[in-house]
DNA sequence: CTGAAAGCGCTTACAG
DNA sequence: CTGAAAGCGCTTACAG
């Protein structure tokens, strides 16, 4: 007998009960006799029965699965987030279907539609860009959904985000204290909430400390490594170049490090660098990178919590997590004037 | 009308056709009239109809989804693999459900069972450890399955793996040429095929070059960072410590780097280091890390290709990809005697 | 505690 | 090219 075609009927027949009873035993319904439980269990084992999740959820409308849509799996922050979400969900009995938007709205829409078609019980999404038809569709269908890390401005859904203000303020204050007056900022895309928020946190911090608010010190990147490299090159080509740089995410920081190395600049001496997002690797660089840290574990765990509450019919409050500066060698030194790339070997 | 309850019957009613015709239009069956196509399309749009994938696959036995089980999403190699698999699958019209075994057999089994229940069309798996009931179940059920990166010894399934021999031989030869005679090796777990294979490639290379085959030079780790740190500490505590170390994966290499830094050893001068797996970050370290590279893009792309062939009823040959040494500063210097940790500040 | 029956939302021979 | 009908593998009121 082809084991792949074993159905609950086969189990029921072997156990000598009706499919209904077999189903009850399988789903842990207490209205079953010990004998029935025993015999069904034996039959399941003997036939290696695996219930068909499709059929089950077609009838019961539950799938015991959630969707997680991240912006970019290759970004260590989102890889870590995927990991914690998945572990938390597993502990609650849910399987996580992971989708990767690849920082593109079209792929986000494709995955979201696919998750809708699969009738996941809920979705955790780190949304791309601005408005999106597929996210509106989630709301229209009343599919339990929460935002993580990022939000979409006029869509009112529970979320877990980071208050970037504290960490960025601490970073700017710290750099000011080390004598930096012109701090460059590599911003994230302004179509993404974290990009906007960290940007405004930076400008507020600059204003509060009375440092140069020269708009030329701000370079808007796209949260990917290449834009971090481009940013460093542009910022250091200024006549009055910054002596310190803050990057709004880890990938752009990676690009910044690569370009600084290519320009033969010594990080922490010739120029200070601080990255948003604390990635394990940053502490291994020479010098170790100062970072603005926020807890990806908390974010993932709380995201699952909130989603389960929404699935349960509740209306949980959004949660905002703190951020904090960790000072390492890349920003520990005093400010020095930075030479433009053109005057150095490249 | 609650948009989430729109079914194909509603679409058919609005379009003035039968559900059968609506279904044919939806699935692109050519046996449909232009009028039917047009009116169904209009109804779908107006009602924002999303077909229920569960119901569809219950009847048609296809789900247009594949499963990918990786060993550890937080390992950049597997994150990259997930990315390329997903992109290739998407191009072929499949959605990828990603599961994370977290280097644990029990989680692997849980996900595999869940993927079976969801009736994915095929599964790509980087298997944990040795034999596994859930992997045997895949075969019994004749679920198209292929191995990627790792294999299980006596299970005969198509696979895409790396021939680690070339790269490791090049690495050993390169280190020998630089004057190293005692090369330490941080092995992966011997329960995993890549762990075993790279280990034997190393011992073969050592034998071929006539270097020290002292068993004390080999430390067996678990492919995680912490074991790389422990390995470095153990190897450098030897009376006759190695002057060069090869780590069998990127995570153990990260641990090795962290420990070498903690011991205040200068990589590339006091001790040479080579890592298996080429991770973007490795070139940013100071000094940049020499690596044994193999193409994760090819691996992911080919894995999807093979799986589609298996789904199509074919019996594709396994593919073995090449590996190659990339020499950077971490191994460029000449060999020096290495002092044990006890004689240094820690 | 149990079984017969209906139905979840689709698809697919079958007949026309 | 189209529709009525059966059925995919489950679950769940309903009646006993």
TrEMBL record, chains A, B:
Keywords: DNA-binding, Repressor, Transcription, Transcription regulation. GO terms for molecular function: DNA-binding transcription factor activity; transcription cis-regulatory region binding. It comes from the Bacteria. Residues 6-60 form the HTH lacI-type domain. InterPro entries: HTH_LacI, Lambda_DNA-bd_dom_sf, Peripla_BP/Lac1_sug-bd_dom, Peripla_BP_I. SMART domains: HTH_LACI. This is LacI family transcriptional regulator. It comes from Cryobacterium frigoriphilum.
